[in-house]
């Protein structure tokens, strides 16, 4: 654990220390499987909630993207496109690019948070026998 944050692997904890510019010493790193399990139970539930929020935002971003694409396709399907339509298409294309970026970013965030939630799920399932064995070696 680093500053009360449980990690599944020592490497991840040391990497986190490096990001915070903390030396990976016993002052900052702690090995406490029981506390890591307790914290992971709480973190896992919280991260599942965050994933739900991100998924709702992703669905809204997808719906927004679908509306923008439908509007663009409607204008493109006209027999005669005037200068105003061309301007509107340019604006719609810019908005579509932004919406794609937003949607893609939310998907990336969902994957990152899901991975961390899974790590906490694994940590929260540590059994006492395994933690005792590790402590005695």
Entry keywords:
137 residues; mainly alpha; 4 helices; elongated; disordered C terminus
Contiguous uncertain segments of 5+ residues: 133-137
What global shape is seen? elongated
Tell me the structural class: mainly alpha
Largest sheet: none
Rg to the nearest angstrom?
24 Å
What is the chains' assembly state?
single chain
Q: What order do the helices and strands follow?
A: HHHH
Approximately how much helix is present in the residues? over 70%
User: Given the structure, what is the number of helices?
Assistant: 4
Q: How far do the termini sit from each other?
A: 18 Å
Q: Please state roughly what percent of the residues sit in beta strands, choosing from under 5%, 5-15%, 15-25%, 25-35%, 35-45% or over 45%.
A: under 5%
Number of strands: 0
Average pLDDT level: 88
What does this structure look like?
With 137 residues, the protein is mainly α. The chain is built from four helices and no strands. The chain has helices at residues 10-19, 33-76, 83-124, 128-136. Helix 2 (33-76) runs antiparallel to helix 3 (83-124). It is elongated and about 70 Å long. It starts with 9 loop residues before the first helix and ends with a helix.
């Amino acid at each position: 654990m680093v500053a009360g944050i449980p990690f599944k692997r020592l490497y991840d904890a040391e990497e986190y220390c490096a990001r915070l510019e903390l030396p990976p010493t016993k002052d900052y790193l702690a090995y406490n499987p029981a506390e890591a399990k307790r914290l992971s139970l709480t973190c896992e539930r919280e991260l599942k909630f965050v994933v739900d929020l991100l998924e709702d935002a992703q669905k809204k971003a997808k719906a927004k993207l679908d509306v923008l694409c439908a509007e663009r396709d409607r204008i493109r399907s006209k027999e005669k496109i005037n200068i105003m339509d061309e301007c509107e298409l340019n604006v719609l294309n810019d908005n579509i690019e932004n919406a794609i970026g937003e949607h893609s970013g939310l998907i990336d965030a969902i994957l990152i948070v899901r991975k961390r939630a899974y790590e906490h799920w694994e940590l929260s399932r540590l059994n006492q026998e395994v933690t005792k064995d590790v402590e005695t070696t």
